[in-house]
Amino acid sequence: MTVNQTIQCLAPAGMARPVGMVVPRVPDTIFFARFNPSPTKRETNMNKTDRDARFRQIRDKVESGQRLSMDDGIFLYDPEVPLQDVGQLANLVRERKNGNVAYYNINTHLNPTNVCVYRCRFCAFRSDLRDPKGYAMSDEQILQRGREATENGCTEMHIVGGLHHQKPYEWYRDLIALLKDNFPKIHLKAWTAVEINWFEFQTKKSKQWVLDDMRSAGLGSMPGGGAEIFHPEVRDQLCEHKANTHEWLQIHQAAHELGIRTNCTMLYGHVEQAYHRIDHLMRLRELQDITGGFQVFIPLAFHPDNTKLDNLKKPSALMDLRTVAISRLMLDNVQHIKAYWIMLGIPTAQTALAYGADDIDGTVRHELIYHDAGATTPQCLSVDDIRGLITEAGREPVERDTVYHRVHRSETDFRDWHSGQPVDDAVAVS
Ligand code: V47
């Protein structure tokens, strides 16, 4: 692939897709580690006067809409830089981009199987085939989830699972078609790039073919999972066998080129350091510069229970808030930052709405990945609960669909809903 080749791309999330817009292809450098850690050391030995001066430089950049550098990002992770200052700066960007609104949706999760060929060290969800915990859902069980979702007014089903070595590609595709045929209104946000990579391996077809075939079956968009940490120093320790950084980014690029919107994530709070996190954000930012297809970034805090890393402590609320804030500051070209309440816990998710986040995910049902890893958050929130916790945090709750359009519901029957205008039309966008 060369920089001079061109692709069709998406407009930034929430904007109409430009027809025939061409942009340079992603340079190969984005897929490879290109940074080594010395600046971390350089920054942490600063005295207070130098630190204050350095922070003022960053504040000036943010206030005047300039892009932050890798060194800026690493500096902001220095625990000596007051969290409140970082949060205040992130809040400035958050309000510039998304006003006082905080988004949520009404959604459910479906994990059709937990049997997985991979053994990622951070994962408590996966199972071996013969383990009593292992399962694969029947068509009837899947249809029952669709009926329950409709009954509860869900607009979205978030579908991810294990890579089951006895299930052919068609099983994964047909379950998407089964749901779409029976529940056509529900948006299917399905399969991480890791699964798409597995389907390429199963079918011996290209990622474009797989994505197109899945879209024909009913896939609406892709979630952001499987990104973990891109830097090979960390990725090789966590999940050396599954889709690598290059493949993850290429699959999202291919999805964007096909007009499929996707989300992006970062799993933090395990063996990585600040420069790995900033390297990760920079790679996402570079791809987003070219395709504009990421809708929202979700920082995911590591939960250690029942994983091969259960000797680690889960990240503190302070680290969670700092990561939300730094993500907001670094990812100047991603419209939304999500504070996933399941993973953060409700009080931290509420606070995150003042530290850069403008989205809190959904009401959620049947979440397994975090609950298997020790999350103590409830399994599900009611619409009143989620609206209440947003209001309590001083923000205005707005229901969105998966691709960030406003949702309108009938006053007499909340299960009767339709999508309206893109949400970003309503607020100032920088
Ligand atoms: O890819 C797995 C992470 C991801 C653990 O796109 C863990 O809207 C912490 O991607 N501790 C799946 N994290 C979840 C995900 C997601 C969640 C919410 C919204 C969206 C979206 C995407 O969870 C995995 C992995 O990075 N994960 N195990 C664990 N023990």
From the structure above, extract its key features:
430 residues; alpha/beta; TIM Barrel; 4-stranded parallel β-sheet; 3-stranded parallel β-sheet; 14% strand; globular; disordered N terminus; binds ligand V47; transferase; F420
Characterise the protein shown here.
By secondary structure, this protein is of the alpha/beta class. The chain has one domain: Alpha-Beta Barrel (TIM Barrel), CATH 3.20.20. Helices cover 40% and strands 14% of the residues. It is built from 16 helices and 14 strands. It has helices spanning 38-44, 48-63, 70-76, 83-98, 139-151, 169-182, 193-203, 207-217, 232-239, 245-257, 274-291, 317-330, 341-344, 346-352, 369-372, 383-392; strands at residues 6-8, 22-24, 101-105, 107-110, 156-159, 187-190, 219-221, 262-268, 294-301, 336-337, 359-362, 396-399, 405-409, 417-422. The strands form 5 sheets. Strands 4-5-6-7 form a 4-stranded parallel β-sheet. The protein has a 3-stranded parallel β-sheet with strand order 11-3-12, covered by helices on one side. Helix 4 packs across helix 12 (317-330) and helix 5 (139-151) packs parallel to helix 6. The model is unreliable at 1-24 and 37-42 (pLDDT under 50). The structure holds ligand V47. Ligand V47 binds next to strand 8 and strand 9. Residues 122-124, 192, 223-226, 228, 263, 265, 267, 298, 300, 302-303, 307, 340, 361, 369, 373 line the site of ligand V47.
